[in-house]
Write a structure and sequence with these properties.
The structure is a single chain. With 147 residues, the chain is mainly beta. It has a single domain, classed as Metal Binding Protein, Guanine Nucleotide Exchange Factor, Chain A (Beta Complex), CATH 2.170.150. The protein is built from 2 helices and 11 strands; from the N terminus they run E-E-E-H-E-E-E-E-E-E-E-E-H. A hairpin with a 6-residue loop joins strand 1 and strand 2. It is globular and about 40 Å long. It starts with 6 loop residues before the first strand and ends in a 6-residue tail after the last helix. The protein binds zinc ion (2 copies). One zinc ion binds next to helix 1.
Amino acid sequence: MGQEDKLEGGCLCGAVRFNASPENKRFGACHCDMCRRWTAGAYLSIACGDSVEIQDETSIGVYSSSKWAERHFCSKCGTSLWYKLKNSSDCYVSIELFDKTEGFDFASQIYIDCKPDYYTFSNETKNMTGAEVEAAFATLNSGETNV
Ligand SMILES: [Zn+2]
Ligand SMILES: [Zn+2]
């Protein structure tokens, strides 16, 4: 994507500012236990590949949440920033960070079987259970799961 597709974003306190180029405008929700604890809700994120450019990395905290992924956050205000795979530069950025979200399209929900009964999104999306997600990921990455 070109320069014109870069979207600006940042955390609650402003210590972390960045820009990124989403691969497309389709974002997804993850209902898994880890994401819900981490973000205080379903995690709504958009694939940004390796396009994230951070202005000042000094406030970025890193939590290694599994063998294959880590979760970055603002160490000053606690904002959840992005989920990043360790064995690649693939980054899934929280859509809530972006200053402008025009055209974003809610496309998918994963770990739908982990979603508690006390909330439900009414959007029409492609939904996958945790087992379906892990099977798809295993096909791509020979046996590792993705949480
Ligand atoms: Zn902050
Ligand atoms: Zn999750």
